[in-house]
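The instructor's notes for this session suggest beginning with a concrete chain rather than abstract definitions. Hand out the sequence below and ask the class to guess, before any prediction is shown, which regions might be ordered.
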Amino acid sequence: MPPVDSAIKAQELLATAINSLVRHQYRGSHESEGTPISLLCGAQGLVPALQRLLSAGLRPISRFTRGTPLVWEFVHKVYLEVSVVNTCHPDQSAIQSFVKCVQLLEKPSSNSVGMNGKLQTLMCLGVKEKVLHRWFYMMSQSLAATKYYDAT
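After discussion, reveal the predicted structure:
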């Protein structure tokens, strides 16, 4: 179980990143603290904050593995789960966009990016397509979530 301070710090970073994006949206680019790219992918941006938040709750898969898995491994398990299970999900369009984006990132040409790069790209695609919040809900409801994250 991750230290409580780590989870709280991750939540604070996420709140700061979201507030910066909202301020940018309502004030306009001339009064903002940065460009949309830096607000999304910069050191204090939304993507690193989400990565930190997702990493804070990961738990080791078994007693025999070292450390905790990477967030991309969790995302990939969710991808396998939703692409194999072809059920009538209420948010089928979110599933389809998620599967399409992960398939794009799993192509051999994107292997040089690495798992963290793939996760960052996936999050940016989710923001661009305006489905990131729906992906997070879908991932939270997956069977993989119960395996990779503590219930607290």
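Then share the key points. The chain has eight helices and no strands. Helices lie at 4-27, 36-41, 46-56, 71-84, 92-105, 115-128, 132-140, 143-148.
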